[in-house]
């Protein structure tokens, strides 16, 4: 089933055609996604919603190159990624995707600055350039004054903002956010969502966010719902926004 998002003038950043995903465990066969068709324009902020087991995280992982479909075609950032080898896919992810997870995934022994620098260690940038890029990313998320702090010295909301800085430090084509506010109180969640919204609106970052929270989905430009592996509904948040 195809669920449209309002068309963009240029080629979509993400183009999914007939994508299915089947997991096999012994004799058990579980089809998580069923022939999904979806276009995501450049500059969109898309929220994926649905009950547990609906396939939303599986779809997110495929868009991010963390998983591959059992059938169908998946183009992201001008590349057909469903045909890439594991090595090529890892290089593609490093160049094009920034990740924001529910539990931050920061290294506790490193400062905020060093955590943000981590993706740049895979590049040939000299140390001074890495530090400069990390400082810019921390400033964008409002944590320039916390650069020397370790994760244990930061609140949950601040840790997630460090994680967002790490996700954007290499200027990725796409940000994928898996329940980015699931471990935060409402105030911290709104700060993080406002930051993501600003990165989308002011810096043109394309984002795909999985969330179970309707309040979080209101910060997105578009909302898609999955049920039993099928896209069943499309919608847009109220025009007024949060």
From TrEMBL:
Gene3D superfamilies: P-loop containing nucleotide triphosphate hydrolases. GO terms for cellular component: plasma membrane; transmembrane transporter complex. CDD domains: ABC_MJ0796_LolCDE_FtsE. PROSITE patterns: ABC_TRANSPORTER_1 (PS00211), ABC_TRANSPORTER_2 (PS50893). GO terms for molecular function: ATP binding; ATP hydrolysis activity; transmembrane transporter activity. Residues 14-242 form the ABC transporter domain. Keywords: ATP-binding, Nucleotide-binding, Transport. The keyword NADP does not apply. This is ABC-type antimicrobial peptide transport system, ATPase component.
């Amino acid at each position: 089933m195809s669920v449209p998002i309002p068309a963009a003038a240029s080629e979509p950043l993400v183009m999914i055609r007939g994508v299915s995903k089947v997991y096999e465990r012994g004799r058990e066969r579980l089809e998580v996604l069923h022939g999904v068709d979806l276009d995501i324009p450049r500059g969109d902020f898309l929220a994926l919603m649905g009950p547990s087991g609906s396939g939303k995280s599986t779809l997110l992982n495929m868009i991010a190159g963390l998983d591959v479909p059992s059938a169908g075609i998946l183009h992201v950032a001008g590349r057909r990624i469903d045909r890439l080898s594991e090595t090529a896919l890892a290089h593609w992810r490093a160049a094009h995707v920034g990740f924001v997870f529910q539990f931050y995934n920061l290294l506790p022994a490193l400062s905020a600055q060093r955590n943000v620098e981590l993706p740049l260690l895979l590049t040939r940038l000299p140390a001074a350039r890495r530090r400069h890029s990390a400082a810019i990313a921390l400033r964008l998320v409002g944590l320039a004054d916390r650069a020397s702090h370790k994760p244990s010295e930061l609140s949950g909301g601040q840790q997630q903002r460090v994680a967002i800085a790490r996700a954007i430090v290499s200027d990725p084509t796409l940000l994928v956010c898996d329940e980015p506010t699931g471990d935060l109180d409402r105030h911290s969640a709104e700060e993080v969502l406002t930051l993501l919204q600003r990165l989308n609106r002011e810096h043109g970052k394309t984002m795909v966010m999985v969330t179970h929270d309707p309040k979080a989905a209101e910060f997105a430009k578009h909302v898609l719902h999955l049920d039993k592996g099928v896209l069943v509904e499309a919608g847009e948040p109220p025009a007024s926004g949060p």
